[in-house]
Design goal:
Largest sheet: 7 strands, mixed
Number of strands: 17
Shape: globular
Bound molecules: adenosine-5'-diphosphate, magnesium ion
Strand content: 25-35%
Number of domains: 3
CATH architecture of the largest domain: 2-Layer Sandwich
Helix content: 25-40%
CATH superfamily of the largest domain: ATP-grasp fold, B domain
Radius of gyration: 21 Å
Length: 361
């Protein structure tokens, strides 16, 4: 019996395109002798479809004309998704779902809540840890509470920024030096992020971030190297070898991440001493545990140039998943191939599901 796996791609967030790239890689590599794959597409408007055509059309974003409108009931016990054609309902059973969705509505606990209600195991952190990791402010607070090192920060509300931009700028200038980073609390892929070198850029950055969120994070600039670590597991998570990103732009912005392919460089593994490697791996696991993550997350850190101190930047619970993405690449370098990694992710999701089921609520 093959395991029926729903691979979900697209989604409403601004990282829709990134999801198409990640999901296409996963769909291509999944062992079709082991898995019956059910590709499920979510449009930018949030409509669900089942798509059984050529995977390349997902990558090119040309999948919709061949897709069938689908509905996933929240009923615990239905365990599937259905399509309706000419008044006839067709059920597609699901043993597990893999939401390959980045950003809000996919990585933030919302869709995870639907899978919880529907009683379907899913490949991602649970509702709480997904939401917390998506919110840079809550992440900071939990890391702080766990005593983990991170850049100095302060939170500003859009409401206050709109009421008095001048006052906000004054407060930021009292608390931070230039350059500083301005980020909306709830996005990913560097969308809405500014590195401000002066008052003018700060004002523009605050306005930009306010377009995306009501909570804005201002952070001290950590000059140094960008290191990432892949973490995998439920109760006993393991960290991969760390990797390094050398961005082609001044910082690792949206353009650098996805479109200037080949210009930013990934060093896998990162050239680090054995001690630093170990320190970063341990901190990554601590951060993972502090946010109560399960299944997987990529933990991103900065290694400060002058002090060699490690600062945790953020956790991505559904990291980029193309064949050349850091998360799978780091596991490959640590001895776990891309297809074995997918097997392991699915196994961990079912393991967690069984464990939760054995607990009474
Ligand atoms: N405090 C900081 N110091 C130095 N660079 C930073 C800092 N915060 C963010 N950056 C740069 O901006 C990029 C995006 O910021 P990040 O917080 O990782 O947001 P996202 O969730 O969009 O990836 C980072 O990869 C890094 O290049
Ligand atoms: Mg990042």
């Amino acid at each position: 019996m093959k395991l029926k796996v729903g691979v979900i791609f697209g989604g409403k967030s601004s990282e829709h395109e990134v999801s198409l790239m990640s999901a296409t890689s996963i769909l291509k590599v999944m062992d079709k002798n082991k898995y019956e794959v059910i590709p499920i597409g979510i449009t930018r408007e949030g409509e669900w479809y089942i798509y059984k055509g050529d995977f390349e059309k997902i990558l090119k974003d040309e999948w919709l004309p061949e897709a069938k409108k689908a509905y996933m009931p929240s009923d615990n016990g239905y365990k599937g998704i259905f399509t309706i054609e000419n008044g006839k309902v067709e059920k597609h059973e699901l043993d597990v779902v893999f939401p390959v969705l980045h950003g809000p509505n996919g990585e933030d606990g919302t869709i995870q809540g639907l899978f919880e209600l529907a009683g379907i195991p899913y490949v991602s952190c649970n509702v709480l840890s997904s939401s917390v990791a998506m919110d840079k402010v809550f992440t900071k607070r939990l890391l702080e509470q766990a005593g983990l090192p991170q850049a100095h920060y302060k939170v500003y509300m859009k409401n206050d920024i709109t009421k008095s931009l001048e006052q906000t700028i004054k407060d930021i200038e009292q608390n931070f030096e230039y350059p500083c980073f301005i980020k909306p609390a709830n996005l990913g892929s560097s969308v809405g992020i500014t590195k401000a070198h002066n008052e003018k850029e700060l004002a523009e950055g605050l306005k930009l971030a306010s377009k995306y969120d009501r909570k804005i994070l201002v952070e001290e600039f950590i000059e140094g190297r960008e290191i990432e670590c892949s973490v995998l597991g439920n109760d006993n998570p393991k960290a991969s070898l760390p990797g390094e990103i050398i961005p082609c732009n001044e910082f690792y912005d949206y353009q650098a991440k996805y479109f200037d392919e080949g210009k930013s460089r990934l060093l896998i593994p990162a050239p680090l001493s054995e001690e630093k490697t170990e320190e970063i791996k341990q901190l990554a696991v601590k951060a993972y545990k502090a946010l109560d993550c399960q299944i997987m997350a990529r933990v991103d850190v900065f290694l400060q140039k002058d002090t060699q101190k490690v600062y945790i930047n953020e956790l991505n619970t559904i990291p980029g998943f193309t064949k050349i993405s850091m998360y799978p690449k780091l596991w490959e370098a640590s001895g776990l191939s891309y297809s074995k990694l997918i097997d392991e992710l699915i196994r961990l999701s079912i393991e967690r599901f069984e464990e939760n089921r054995s607990q009474s609520i």
